[in-house]
Specification:
By secondary structure, the protein is an alpha/beta fold. It is built from 18 helices and 19 strands. It starts with a helix and ends in a 5-residue tail after the last helix.
Length: 558
């Protein structure tokens, strides 16, 4: 790193002093806090993105959003070359950058990291960053700070992609690094052409009654509602009404959005008895989560929730059906049995896990967090992962997609229009419709709609796949959360000794009882999850386990 580069970094960083008394940590959601104290963090993440681009010789993304947080918050996350989240290996460096107290310390950190990582500054590769932001008022000035951070690395180029959903930016990064077209219009075209393909392949006998042609979507007063308005103008065969687009004066994420609907299990603002019997969906603030719901009978505001576990189950049923057709009559020489896997965390409702296993599917658990789910799903030919909150996607391996393309070509020459070829075409369409970089509410919604039509299912039929077990979540204040060590995807406590045995003894008292505890990643609390055959039993089990945690580790709050 030459004198000019060092001088650039020192001079520009003086313009963005860090807030005093604030310590930030880069987690699954990136950095996220009150927007008024994020200027220096955005500038520094612009630097990090440029360094990551130089290191990987790839296009990197920087998305400014706070997802389902309140409108006064904002945040930033980095998209790696594959379109996924920033490598965990770089997270400690991002924390150090964000919290450096002055320009000199910042420069020293950068110089040392560049040396340690062998990041080239020889001018052979130009760092390139795609910048995106959601609809928050603070986004414009924060994007400018990020742009200046990128520019402080000599030769680095920042492209302002405008107002986007988080999944759109991740999709663009992945597409650019695969050498594909990567504008917003390319994103829309890929989704819509794949959706049309799936609609064209719906069996003639699949009929839905008239009311089911209508879908009403809660846009969380965010960017997802805006983008869905664009999509619906290009759609045929699906009538979408978008409420809470942000244009009606509503406030982002205030009593609206997937996070609110999933946690509170009540209708979002703008929905009521006039929507009784109609299929409804809710996006979150940056459109990377999706849940469905219908109004509960005999209630003005309660809902029957169709969460991420049920979306996963719908996708799994459909993909298993297509694989069964394709692999059930293997003709020709080019035969291959795909390995299909379903990935959940321990927070997935036990009824969903049982249902998926009864279908004969391979179900595995990972620790909580998208980075774990995504990495495990990538180990399959087709890997499906979802969290109950509505975040998830489907991953297809490059090897399997190559085989599928070749199989489709073979079938088109020997059995054009056969059920086998239709199954191959459906799977190829799913691989293009779903966003394989990250969970995407818009692409997920279109896939749900296509599959419901293919199956001929109403939202009520879909919701009856299985009955969720009642559950309860609690948290217990502890002196030191690191005293809790877990194993087996956070389902078993290894330390402190004796706690897991005590939990097992409590679980044994309840019909269909299940409970686990895990330390919070951000605060000195231990989170408790419990489920059982009735809500009363789930509540009782959760309280019993919380008391055990408090007895072993707590501060006497239970």
């Amino acid at each position: 790193m030459d004198v000019k580069q060092r001088s650039n970094l020192l001079e520009s960083s003086c313009l963005f002093p860090p807030p005093s008394g604030v310590k930030l940590s880069y987690g699954t959601a990136g950095f996220r806090t009150d927007a008024s104290i994020l200027q220096s963090t955005m500038f520094r993440m612009g630097i990090l993105a440029a360094l990551r681009s130089l290191k990987t010789h790839s296009v990197i993304g920087l998305m400014i959003t706070a997802s389902h947080n309140k409108v006064s918050d904002n945040g930033v996350k980095i998209a790696d070359p594959c379109g996924g989240m920033l490598s965990q290996h770089w997270e400690p460096f991002s924390d150090e950058l964000a919290n450096a107290p002055d320009p000199q310390t910042l420069l020293l950190l950068i110089v040392e990291f560049v040396k340690k990582e062998n990041i080239p500054f020889d001018g052979a590769f130009t760092a390139e960053i795609l910048l995106g932001r959601d609809t928050r008022p603070s986004g414009e000035s924060l994007l400018e700070a990020a742009r200046q951070g990128v520019s402080s690395i000599v030769g680095a180029v920042a492209h302002d992609m405008g107002i986007l959903t988080t999944p759109q930016l991740h999709w663009m990064v992945r597409a650019r690094n695969k050498g594909l077209k990567a504008t917003e219009s390319d994103y829309f075209e890929q989704l819509l052409s794949s959706f049309r393909c799936l609609m064209d392949l719906i069996p003639n006998e699949s009929k839905m009654d008239e009311i089911e042609d209508r879908l009403i979507v809660d846009g969380a007063n965010g960017v997802g509602g805006e983008k869905l308005e664009v999509i619906k103008k290009m759609l045929s065969g699906l009538v979408i009404e978008v409420h809470n687009t942000g244009k009606e004066g509503g406030i982002l994420n205030e009593r609206v959005g997937a996070d609110f609907v999933q946690k509170e299990k009540v209708v979002p603002h703008g929905f009521g008895s006039n929507h009784d019997g109609i299929r409804c969906a809710s996006l979150d603030g940056d459109a990377d989560r999706l849940v469905y719901f219908s109004l509960a009978s005999n209630s003005s505001n309660k809902i029957d929730l169709v969460d991420g576990d049920k979306i996963l189950s719908l996708f799994a049923v459909f993909i298993k059906e297509q694989l069964s057709i394709l692999e059930g009559d293997m003709k020709g020489n080019n035969n291959y049995k795909a390995r299909l896997g379903v990935v959940q965390t321990a927070y997935a409702n036990g009824a969903s896990t049982d249902y998926l296993k009864h279908l004969g599917l391979e179900v595995v658990l990972t620790p909580t967090g998208v980075k774990y789910l995504h990495a495990r799903a990538a180990q399959y030919d087709i890997g499906i992962y979802f969290e109950a909150n509505g975040h998830g996607t489907i991953l297809f391996s490059e090897h399997y997609l190559s085989w599928l393309e070749a199989k489709n070509t073979e079938l088109s020459s020997i059995s054009q229009g056969s059920e086998l070829q239709k199954a191959a075409l459906r799977l190829l369409a799913v691989s293009n419709l779903i966003n394989q970089a990250v969970g995407d509410a818009l692409s997920g919604l279109l896939l749900v709609e296509a599959i419901l039509r293919h199956m001929g299912w109403s939202i009520h039929r879909w919701n009856e796949l299985y009955q969720d077990l009642p559950s309860r979540q609690l948290k217990v204040k502890v002196v030191d959360r690191t005293a809790v060590v877990t194993a087996n995807a956070e389902t078993v406590v290894v330390s402190p000794p004796g706690l897991q045995e005590a939990i097992n003894a409590e679980i044994a008292k309840y019909n269909k009882g299940r409970s686990f505890v895990r330390p919070s990643g951000t605060e000195d609390v231990v989170r408790v999850y419990a489920e059982a055959s009735t809500q009363e039993e789930a509540d009782s089990l959760a309280n019993s386990v919380a008391e055990l945690v408090d007895r072993f580790l707590g501060v006497g709050s239970f």
